[in-house]
Amino acid sequence: MSLEKTETVNIIRHLAFEDLGSFASVLQAKGTDIHYIEAGYDELSQLDPLSDELLVILGGPISVNDAGMFPFIDEELALLKQRIAADKPTLGICLGAQLIAASQGAKIYSGEEKEIGWYPLQLTEAGERSALRYLGEQHCSMLHWHGETFDLPEGATLLASTQKFTNQAFSIGRRVLGLQFHPEITRHGMEKWFIGHIGEIMQTPGISVEQLRADTAKYADQLEVQGELFFQSWLGGLD
To answer: Which one-letter DSSP state was computed for residue 151?
Structure first.
């Protein structure tokens, strides 16, 4: 299986403005069709859990533990459990990473504080050897936007941490990757986040739209460059 030859990438999206960001241009340059599936609206049963096509699960403000309110979460977990057992290419970002972890039996729980804003990643030795080498603190700062964290799934390899949260990125084999942070973000796209997440911003001490916008202007353009390098590298390693 080669992502270089894949015609379609399937994307589970939980919020319209939390999309593929800069990763879309990488896929478009390969002539890849980007197929969004809107969680809670579109039928997840349209996805074949054993498909060789890449599946990306994006972020969102809900919790993996909210399946009582959002039954599609259990559908996503079942889908991921099958894909990972079959070693099918899967990338989870933020909520998507937590869903991957939970599908492997890991606990999802609130951190001591929210991590919203720009903070550098500290890579493990395994992370330095992986595609995440393009996202280390020597290259860029990283956007974080989460209040929950997770235990490292059994058999997973830890790739990155921050000062506030130890488990920021992990891999399961070569084809499954979970990222708690947002390497896909663009400066222009962040303006939608400020609008869509204004309630959370106003309720979180120590952050503001003004500060987030200033930090985004400082860091986002470089992250876009490094994020595309990361994504290209990870796709190339899926063969």
So the answer is: P
The alpha helices in 30-169, defined as continuous H runs, are: 72-85, 95-103, 125-128
Q: Which domains does the chain have, with CATH numbers?
A: 3-236 (3.40.50.880)
Q: Which residue has the tokens 């890849």?
A: 32
- Helix crossing, 209-236 with 187-196: angle to 10°? 120
Rounded CA gap, 20 and 10, in Å? 11
Amino acid identity of residue 174, one-letter, is R
Best CA proximity match to 97, nearest among 26, 219, 212, 12: 12
Q: Which residues contact 173 (CB under 8 A, 6 or more apart)?
A: 87
Full pLDDT tens readout for the chain, 239 residues? 445 555 899 999 999 999 999 999 999 999 999 999 999 999 999 999 999 999 999 999 999 999 999 999 999 999 999 999 999 999 999 999 999 999 999 999 999 999 999 999 999 999 999 999 999 999 999 999 999 999 999 999 999 999 999 999 999 999 999 999 999 999 999 999 999 999 999 999 999 999 999 999 999 999 999 999 999 999 999 87
